[in-house]
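BUG-355 | component: ligand-complex export | severity: low

The export step for EPU jobs runs without errors, but we want the raw record kept on the ticket for reference. Input record follows.
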Amino acid sequence: MLVEKNVPLQSSNTFGIMAKALTLVRVGSEADIAAVLQDASLAAQPKFVLGGGSNIVLTGDVKALVLKVEIMGKRLLRETDKAWIIEAGAGENWHELVSWTLQMGYPGLENLALIPGTVGASPVQNIGAYGVELQDRFESLDAVDLTTGQPFTLNAAQCAFGYRDSVFKHASQAGEAAGAQALGLAHRTLITRVRFSLPKQWKPVLGYADIEKKMLQSNVDKPSALQIYEWICEVRKVKLPDPQVVGNAGSFFKNPTVSPEQCADIIQREPKIVHYHLADGSVKLAAGWLIDACGWKGKSIGNAGVYEKQALVLVNRGGTSNPVTGGEVMTLAKAIQTSVYERFGIRLEPEPVVV
Ligand code: EPU
């Protein structure tokens, strides 16, 4: 095990924020985790698990021991009558996994193409796009409890998936009954491998405005999985900045949910508000629209900016030479939250983890 000191993290977070890990260990296997936990001084330190760094805002040097997950490998684990079960190491790049499954003839992940980040991070925030969420294709995952060194496996119910949410985003509460759902797993879990169940009876997930537009334009009414994959890549490239070119962490806020009564009240004042009725009776509002309506699109505070083509995305306007700071990102985020609250009475909740 190599213990590295003062490791620059600028290229390990997609915002491109400049910060250091005071201590960093690369985790290529379960044995590396065991080695960390057997070292008394490392074991005693708080730990921060770093995947692709695509959903974090670094507000300073990271003092916790950074465990950089580099567990690789992807394979067809088994096949049932109904599904292919694919297993991938937590350190694999998400988009490369999606591309590989399609090349191998296992469709099902195409709507999740081009999402930045790693396989291990995908269940943490239950990534989702164009009508598919990770939980729709999830089978189980392996992880290690960083407080005890114990490996464990969780199924979908135990991961307690929600909209951009899971048991891995919640801290544990003392005194609760055992069971992953009751015990939040934030700050104490390292996900090592994730398994996906891809049904052999593949059904395209269409019905999303951007995809319907592609179908009309190209006159294709029964697209293949590969066709959908290509459309999703095209749509994302137009709407969302490539973090290799313009630093960002994807959507910065979650789309808020309100009651039908609240929604009716807002519609009276703001008839054009973009909203979607959910199965449980609540109404989801487009945070991008709310931010756009407050006039934020294209605006900046310091080197933190609101992306010109999608107001839900905050970007690094200083590039790699004079990058945005985590403080600037959070100042801009707070200013946006305040103006959306003042105009609509809605509190926007940030999506990325602030470190
Ligand atoms: N809109 C505006 N102005 C804007 C941005 C959006 O008016 O500046 C309107 C759009 O016209 C549209 C609506 O808001 O009517 C929704 O926009 P869009 O379809 O682009 O999707 P979104 O709600 O902004 C969500 C996810 C994305 C995901 C897309 C596609 C969240 C927080 N974001 O964005 O996920 O790719 O849907 O499914 O749920 C991410 O999580 O990082 C992410 C990029």
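Assignee comment: Attached the raw record above. The longest strand covers residues 189-199.
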